[in-house]
Amino acid sequence: MKIIVTVKQVPDTSGKVAVNPDGTLNRASMETIINPDDLNATEAALKLKDEYGCKVIAFTMGPPPAEGMLRELMAMGVDEGVLITAREFGGSDTYATSQIIAAAIDTYGVDEDDIVICGRQAIDGDTAQVGPQIAEKLHLPQVSYAGEMKKEGNTLTIKRMLEDGYMTIKVNTPCLITCIKELNEPRYISVSGAFEAYSKPLVIMDYAALKDHPLIDETTIGLKGSPTNIFKSFTPPQKGVGMMLEGAGKETTDKLADILSAKHII
Amino acid sequence: MDFKLTNELKMLQKMYRSFAENEVKPIAAEVDEEERFPKETIPKLARYGFMGIPYPKEYGGQGGTALAYAMAIEEISKVCATTGTIVAAHTSLCCNPIFDWGTEEQKRKYLPDLLSGRKLGGFGLTEPNAGSDASRQQTTAVLEGDHYVMNGSKCFITNATEADVFIVMAMTDPSKGNKGISAFIVERNFPGFSVGKHEKKMGIRGSATCDLIFEDCIIPKENLLGKEGQGFKVAMQTLDGGRVGVAAQALGIAEGALDEVVKYTGERQQFGKRLAQFQNTQFQIADMKARCDAAQLLVYRAAAAKDDHDPNLGFYSSIAKLYASETASDVTRRVVQLFGGYGYTREYPVERMMRDAKITEIYEGTSEVQRMVIAARMGVR
Amino acid sequence: MAENYNSADIAAFKNVWVFCEQRQGEMMPTTFELISEGRKLADELGVELCGILLGDDVDGLAKEVGGYGADKVYVCNSPLLKYYTTDGYTKVICDVIEDIKPEIMLFGASNIGRDLAPRCAARLHTGLCADCTHLDVDLDGYVNFLRTGSSLDVDNMSFESKQFDVNSNLKMTRPAFGGHLMATIVCPRFRPAMATVRPGVMKKRPFDEAKAEALQIIHPEFSLTEADIQTEVVEVVKAAAKLVDLIGADYIVSVGRGISKDVEGGIKLAEELAAELGGVVGSSRACVDSGWISADHQVGQTGKTVHPKVYIALGISGAIQHKAGMQDSECIIAVNKNENAPIFEVADYGIVGDLFKVVPLLIDSIRAAKAAK
Lengths: 266, 381, 373
Fold this sequence. Notes:
heterotrimer; A: 9-stranded mixed sheet; 15 strands; globular; B: alpha+beta; 4-stranded mixed sheet; 11 helices; 10 strands
């Protein structure tokens, strides 16, 4: 049995974010971090490793600096890393990304008792689409929004969270789970882990390694292979100096409520 | 000479900061206010390898370097000097002598528990009449068949109430002066061992600092550490090594205070401006930053010397400890001043940092002792 | 996917569809919001608006969908569709879409919608845009939206495209990078163009009884067997109201020394306002020190640091220690009798007034604004 985890290196959008004078986002102002939900996915995998002694492999699609993130995950306890990286894969939307990652995972091989664990969504794209789309391409059953997970033999019992409660769902391996932050508390790397990380195996899967896979061709990867394209991007109007409202009566509170409503704040 | 951190150290520094921020900082004020030993932090520190960083995996350590260890103490001490003391005393003053001087049996018996953090360690050298003048040991240990009988007391012992294992120095042959002192591995459950009064201190108030009392304490013969008469050497070399830990702690205290003042002066307004906009603030902070960076380079140099088995280790450690501890006192005093009235209250952590800083100039060799060591090493007599 | 199904054959796809999400026989409110929005899009395109509704014996839920603007609702009934399963719902929806070929498909971005929509998009080889906050077909409408809702200089830029027809393609605008960036996405080469929309974002139209009566209910052919579904739903549980704590709260209403003339009343008002927003009550240090509220409510240097969506400070002066705990909130609203109170320096919106008078009015105003949606 092995556990496959998909992870992404993202800009830290929850910290300080600067906007350029021309209204574009200053990407350099954001630190790069491991996507938070993916840390929960990794922790879930490591908990299974603690219990069953199985191997954990982390897959990521990204530019070469993503290796640093894989090494950090190895310092947490992940056994192997796979870096999917190629010029040809750049500009991929979620559909194309899922194709590529699914091809990479399929190339590595998924066995009957394996589990693929993904974070629910990345904090840059915020779409939550890649996990389910990888599941579709790999023909695996999926359970998303996992808030609790138990394993007995080859059956997983999962508390799938809803806005107002949850569904308890049973699914057999092989399967794909997407998890939310309530699933667990990710561990830190250990000191010994840091000193072992750079000697663990890291595989690079580039275009040459994947181009013969049935899921990969020009029409399914990169910008050309993406069904969705960005038409325009812009920053919301900047938060300026605060606004003092006139008066303190009903018209004032009505005005405030309207402003908040229009901004979808309430 | 490479001033860049390796990938492993960068990764560790990130973890140390995150751990300090999330696990240590939230209770730091309370630990100081209530003079409470942060018991709940020990298993967390243990889990991630903090209690045995620079020792080989074969004995249960993390297989890390002295530099990785120094950085850990630095980062922890930025938010809580008490916790820094606990880890440093355990690692440098108890684990280290066993590792350097112990027989294979002693190492296999004690190191796995200590390095994993399952047990905590301490070090007993100081006595009411033997502070800087450590050779005036009055605690005695007399061999009686298969065991030693120890009588006397130690004072100002860190981790006293919580540690299970102590390295204790005692006089085995009073006629030989220094060379009549021996070192022992003492377990808390040995008959005749007890912990005495708890010192009320100016700073590192969460650190358990008490007397150790030996009343016909029975210590098995096998627990002699090194040979009879080597005790003073064991103690001095241990302190030499421990110096890097204290230097790292002092460095952390200074850097923690500097971080706080940069944040505060960026927000606090007086006379229609933020404090950061006044040149006095800018100049003070620039000075403090230069001193902190200098201290950091000295500490890292000393730690790297340990990893390289550089014979200058003792020399570099003394310089680092002297400079870093005086920097800590200087920086924290200036930071409280920049904070003004609020800095004097316990609402902000800087007054605690100022109180914590002072001990780093005193323990594990006072600044005066460091000066003696440095000058002697330079051949200035 | 059916052998001859080609998601790139744009001309073959027509009409706007909305996935009508029901749970345990109750229609999710977001369905009506989406139908309302779908009506606008269908009108701009000059096509029909249809709902697609899955469940077990759920015909009765369809009529209400008509009242908000749908021309038809395709209903698929099966005991196997009683509870949501990814496999069951994906298969039925994709089979029906492959048959009937809508050009646009909208889902509510609920936990279920966000599980279902991507799986469908992947199976149908088409594009999906998640969490949309704005949808446009009509280019002028889109440009107007950008004029006030963006930092772009719309009057001095081109909206032409050589790659696709900007006038007839659905323009889906959504937040990315945690909300710091907005992107307008198009799906020009494949159909249906799919989008999920956050609940509460689109406005519901007024209910039209006549339109509801005129609704056509159609039962399309589909096949679904137990073997198609690879997960087992053991139970569905509705949770009691979760205890929200300050750190994770999206809405915080905090009280300060300004409540001193009627402590109990002031806290009660804060609780009411917080309840109206689905949030929690916080406090400055002053109230905690005076024993008016327990320490776990304290926000500030010696209390908790919070980052809610909305922080409302009532009768709080805004000393630096308090600001330290809340100044990174997304939207700060302050109510204070003193127009020089430092809290107004960090507030996005400020009202100078007596909180005991302002807060009841504010609760009413917010209630009214929410009902109007």
